[in-house]
Amino acid sequence: MPASNTKLYTTSTALHYLGPGFRYRTGLYTDGQVEDGVLHGNLIVRGSGDPVIGGRFNDNDRTELFRQWADTLRSAGIHQIRGDIIGDGTIFDSPPLGSSWSWDYLTYWYAAEHAGLSFNDNTVDAAIIGTTAGRPAQILIEPNNTSYVEILNHTLTVPADSARRISYDRPIGSNRITIANHVPEGDTIRYSLSIPNPTLYFAHVLRESLLLEGIPVLGRPADVAEWSIRPDYDRLTLITTHESPPLADIVNVTNTVSQNMYAETLLMTVGALFPPDNSDDRNSHQKGLIRQNEFLGSAGVDTSRIALVDGSGLSRRNLVTPHMSTSLLRYMWMLPDGELRDAFMKSLPVGGHPEGTLRTLFRSGPASMNVRAKTGTIGGARALSGYVDAANGRTYAFSIMSNNHLVSTGRVNEVIEAVVQMLAAYPHNLNANHTE
């Protein structure tokens, strides 16, 4: 089980098919007429699969785009909306969760649902603030204290010298989140919690944001999937289009912080935009996996034995060998396309760097600030695969995976780090015929 090493396969596939300069384009449309400042119709957001709308690339200002859209609507003469705010995420037709994901992951940000229209990583952000010992903590929710979720505050503030206790629960498919943390006085716990139906969430928060910007919306937020007839965009009026950052930047986040929802979205994007022949009976995920398999074969990976069922690595049904991973890493290293190669290499976390999933490893030794590698962790599985520059002047691709271990993850990390440090210190006196 490669865990999040699966993202090496997903991001390389996305860069191969889409290119590092690819940008998602999300359209804002109307289906009615504007009279005396009133839109007699609906506002429709046509999702393109963009996973990063929110605060990721704009200093955590989650609703900046929605405020910009409010300005654009006013410039178009729209000061009131009589209809609904409708989200359209139908560019993807896959289930919102990956194959065989563990049900007890689903409250947490790392198992957020994926969709063709996403907002704020498909999570709400909670700040749980310790007050006075014996009293409940204060809970603040972003964006805009949205009413999309109902928060049940079962928290307790404990003395300042007490330990934190973390407890969150959201029944599957529900918008009701129970937060039962123990928070020391003066402490603040910040955490992101997943929500159901990202498309409806997008429409809901957009409507709330327009109201805050002084644009009354008389209708409700809605998911276009509720409609019996899909919009005919050729007959609608395009108000504006939002472009995402380039794919290279999205891939960077996907690998550096191991963002699962982004990985799933990248795989579905490949499937939606590059559907294989005779695949009409397959969903976007399945089409993406077919295209991925084709790419991996061309990259020299043994696809006769590989089993990949999602894009992120949360599924325990993903199965690869270390040799498959090093074959892929070698291929990406040797790419003649420098822009594509650099986008992949720069996306890998750096050992000992303060940002990324390797920030607590390789803080010293020859591998510190030297190794670039993708981590992977799920219950009973730990992996690290990437590149390290050795003392002999060569760069080595490596893949280390541990499955079904009974020792702690920390102990496995110690062993993995020791192996990579040994590679980084590899001596100069190699046989001339040695190939890595």
List the helices and strands and how they pair.
Elements: H1 6-18, E1 25-30, E2 33-35, E3 38-40, E4 43-46, H2 64-75, E5 80-81, E6 85-88, E7 123-129, E8 138-142, E9 150-153, E10 156-158, E11 168-169, E12 176-179, E13 182-184, E14 188-194, H3 198-212, E15 221-223, E16 237-243, H4 247-256, H5 260-273, H6 284-298, H7 322-333, H8 338-346, E17 372-378, E18 381-389, E19 395-403, H9 409-424
Parallel strand pairs: 3-5, 4-6, 6-15, 9-12, 10-13
Antiparallel strand pairs: 1-4, 1-16, 2-3, 7-8, 7-14, 11-12, 17-18, 18-19
Helix pairs in contact: 1-4, 1-5, 1-6, 4-5, 4-8, 5-6
Cα separation of the termini: 24 Å
Percent of residues in helices comes to 25-40%
The tally of domains stands at 3
Q: Can you tell me the CATH topology of the largest domain?
A: Beta-lactamase
Strand coverage percent = 15-25%
Question: What's the level 1 CATH class of the largest domain?
Answer: Alpha Beta
Count of helix runs: 9
Q: What integer value in Å does the Rg equal?
A: 24 Å
Give the overall silhouette. globular
| CATH 4th-level superfamily of the largest domain | DD-peptidase/beta-lactamase superfamily
How are the strands ordered across the major sheet?
15-6-4-1-16
Average pLDDT, all residues: 95
In the CATH hierarchy, the architecture of the largest domain is 3-Layer(aba) Sandwich
Structural class: alpha/beta
- Major pleated sheet: 5 strands, mixed
| Number of beta strands | 19
